[in-house]
Task: structure prediction
Amino acid sequence: MAQIATAAGVSRPTVSYVLNDTAAVRHLKPETVKRIRELAKQMGYSSNDAARAIKTGKSRTLAFITPPLRWDSNFAIVYAAANEAFNLGYQVKYIPLRADKKGVEDCIRICQDFLIPAVICLNIPRQQLLKLAKAAKAAGIRTAQVGDCFPEITPVSILADHRSGCEEVVTHLYELGHRRIALMLNSRAYSSSVMRFEAFLDQMKKLGIAPPPELILEGHFTPDEISRETLALLKLDPRPTAIICDTDPSALTVLTTLQRQGVRVPEDISVTGFVDLPLGQFTVPSLTSVHLPVEELGQHVVRQMVEWSETDKLPTVIPPLPVRVVVRDSSGPCPN
Result:
């Protein structure tokens, strides 16, 4: 590498940036990049990731730490991240985070064994994320969040604009005549749910509606729990005319439960989701949902962590990525 630097008339770090296809390449002149690659080819250069890791004490691997993957959206984020890492000369190692006492300890040990310099945290509840970030910092490992944002825990976060998404779906239902709108929330242990919850209350207040406590449900993950809470909503008098769900899987469970009770969607109750999974296009009725840019989330967080790892400087903060409501057949006019 030193010989290439001398022949090209550039510094050795510049050669390293080019040959390793790092994020810093975009700051170099195209003719410089071309000259370095041509010289590397002429001199028969080939990279040795193992040797580099031993010498520098860190590999070109990013860890993706998350509880066992359940939703298609999480798979899509990890897949997009892995592709982006490959394009930047890195790779992604998926490490499942168990909920037991040794879960965090084992994740950090694996990162140390593989000389992983940075981890990306996905869908981790606040308290467990706090424990993981603290252990990672003690081990000299950098951390980032994707999908959530607890700025006091990690300095890098990539998320979608959950607030505007919830505001838009509330407005959509309001314009259809709905006033008794229920919210089925995942858990406020996740910042994404907190942002949606706050946006729901703020937008309802802005529209002159004070949702009663019985229309706000939280902490239900399994289909059985979601179905049970949906049945409880049906027993209310008056019952809600629309249900906003924190995730598409929750919305699909609500949809199925209502139909089994003979409740028509959307004629009797409208249902909306969050994420916009492809499956929602093919349900009957098709699901109205807030579309999240899951692929862009994965791509951006990898770019941020690669830049941080290679420059030792915190990357520029990226504002929440835009979302949009995709209106389909599961939302309709409020019944008289």
